[in-house]
């Protein structure tokens, strides 16, 4: 079956530019990697990718269209996403520098994979973005549109995940380099707090937003 997709090169270029644009997901990955290390940053990036898989499936199954058409569904998801963003931001703001005593204790930090997945999955703006962006590169009325949505969503997600993985490696590398050079071993927690403050702001902004 031939996929009803057109202007694939334009889609790939546009998707790359969009994925390179700083946003909440990239900020979360960078803050997590700088504060908690490379592995945590990689898990955060993969979690964000899992959230994008969720939105791709919603778009292909038509659920995103229902969210866009229903004030109740959109509002419920919006408030859930806003609450989670604010909660995540407050957790980041409460980050404390690691100490020798704390290092010996079991870590109780939230799992960066699931946190990244929820930050992305609970954002209705992402669902509406997929619903608005992907169909522009699919032939209207042609059969196989659901499969085309899955393919384009997967391509978009692969590019976004690659960018976020690069951000995770870069942020963790810079933080580790500064710590080794005696620059500031506390840079990571402060970056995470800065990200937390922005997440609180994004949560408030999402709660006050309309479609």
Give the topology, please.
Blueprint: H1 8-20, H2 24-36, H3 38-61, H4 63-69, H5 71-93, H6 100-104, H7 112-121, H8 124-133, H9 145-180, H10 187-208
Structural write-up:
- The chain contains ten helices and no strands.
- The chain is mainly alpha-helical and 211 residues long.
- The protein has one domain (22-208).
- The protein starts with 7 loop residues before the first helix and ends with a helix.
Shape: globular
Distance between the termini: 35 Å
Q: What is the β-strand count?
A: 0
In total, the number of domains comes to: 1
* SS class: mainly alpha
| β-sheet strand percentage | under 5%
Order of helices and strands: HHHHHHHHHH
Quick recap of the structure?
By secondary structure, the chain is an all-alpha fold.
Please describe the structure with a list of short key phrases separated by commas or semicolons.
single chain, 211 residues, mainly alpha, 10 helices, 77% helix, globular
């Amino acid at each position: 079956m031939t996929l009803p997709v057109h202007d694939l090169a334009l889609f790939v270029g546009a998707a790359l530019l969009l994925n390179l644009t700083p946003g909440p997901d990239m900020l979360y990955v960078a803050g997590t990697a700088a504060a908690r290390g490379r592995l945590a940053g990689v898990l955060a990036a993969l979690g964000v990718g899992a959230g994008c898989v969720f939105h791709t499936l919603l778009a292909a199954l038509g659920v995103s269209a229902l969210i866009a058409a229903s004030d109740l569904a959109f509002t419920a998801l919006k408030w859930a996403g806003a609450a989670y963003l604010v909660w995540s931001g407050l957790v980041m703001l409460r980050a404390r520098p690691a100490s020798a005593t704390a290092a010996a204790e079991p870590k109780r930090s939230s799992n960066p994979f699931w946190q990244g997945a929820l930050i992305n999955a609970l954002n209705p703006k992402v669902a509406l973005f997929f619903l608005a962006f992907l169909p522009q590169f699919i032939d209207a009325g042609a059969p196989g549109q659901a499969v085309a949505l899955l393919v384009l969503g997967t391509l978009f997600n692969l590019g976004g995940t690659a960018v976020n993985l690069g951000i995770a490696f870069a942020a963790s590398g810079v933080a580790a380099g500064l710590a080794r050079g005696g620059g500031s071993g506390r840079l990571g927690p402060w970056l995470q707090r800065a990200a937390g403050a922005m997440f609180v702001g994004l949560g408030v902004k999402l709660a006050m937003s309309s479609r």
